[in-house]
Amino acid sequence: MSEQTKKWRYGVKRWIVLALFIVGGYAAFGRNTMLRPISPVVVLPAEPISPNSPITNTMLATLIADVVLLLFAFGAYRFHKQGNLVPNGLYNFFETIIEFLWNTVEGATGKWAKRIFPVVATIFLLIFFANVIKLFPGFESIGWMKEAHKAPAYAPVKLFDLGGLPVYTIDKGRPVEVEAHGEEATAAAGAESEHGEAKTEPCHACEVVPFLRGSATDLNFTIALAIIAVVMTQVYGVWALGPSYFSKFFQFGALVNGGIFGLINFGVGFLELILEFAKILSFSFRLFGNIFAGTLLLSIVGALLPIVIPPGLYLFEIFFGIIQAYVFFLLATMFISMALVSHHGDGHGEEHH
Amino acid sequence: MNDPVAFVAGLKLLGAGLAMLGAIGAGVGVGIAASGGVQAMGRNPDAANIIQTNMILGMAFAEAVAIYALAVALIIIFAA
Question: Which of A113, A153, B22, B40 would be a feasible disulfide site paired with A148, CB 3.0-4.6 Å?
């Protein structure tokens, strides 16, 4: 209970932070236009990681998130196997997350929690890691160069050679007019920056195609997760109720002996069927919209006012990444728990508890 | 009107901005959900966990409308 006031002393970290602020201010407003942040080129679909590559940058980012998640999980598992009684930081982290998720799932589904938990927790962990990893430096900023077709384009500047591979940056102080008929020059110019032919510049008016981009800024990722969640909902429904699960959608019994209200119930059943498909849409667009808007916000505000605001926005984005992962997880859990219980109590009068 | 391409591009941006009017309703909805949730938690702090879960669920549903508006706006700008 004895609360002592700490002796105030000069720390080191605050000076590091201050120095970083000054460096950032110099980069943003100093005389050297090469360091200035440029306004982003907004591209909706994922782009290939090299010219003519089938692998897109969001796929690469998802793979990295997978690998990091697996490493963390195996680390925690090995720690658990060693039988240490005092948990370390990583183990604590995982225990907190898993316990929180487990309590949520068990509160919603009761004795089914053990069978449902792996699917929804995997979805949560993947989205969580993908959303946090996309905030690391290097995402959306390092890439290969290609000829730009739209207005914000700048001249390339060679920095240094990295083992025969020339490294370029683009100079904000030298905006370049985009050629209207630049279609045929694109592929060849883009390829050269990769293969190190240092005699010419890779492109005339350049834009950067990043190697890494946040997984959830690609609709393919979010739609895949949404389809998995919705299909697993049906699977658990059939597992719990048997074939009578589908009587929720096709209420022929109500149609035969229900009179006019039976007809209404039959129509409602079809609406339920449409609702299942609407779930895919709502799941995927919610995650995609939030994360894509966040990325857009970060890059646009970073270009407009690059010095004070972005750290706060990064904090905001970490928060939103976790919240969106949790919302996806929570909605999947709720839909599955709704599919587990029999839909209409009036027809059979049976109790599921 | 002299340059039809620029005219259409401008109309596209206008349309995208108008599409985001849908965010008004979502903002009001999220605000109501948060208000109700916080009031309930203030009256019954023991039930804070359940209330918080349901509040976030409701906010997610309300927010979905704004996300649809955003998707429409993005489609208007980039895809249409």
Answer: A153
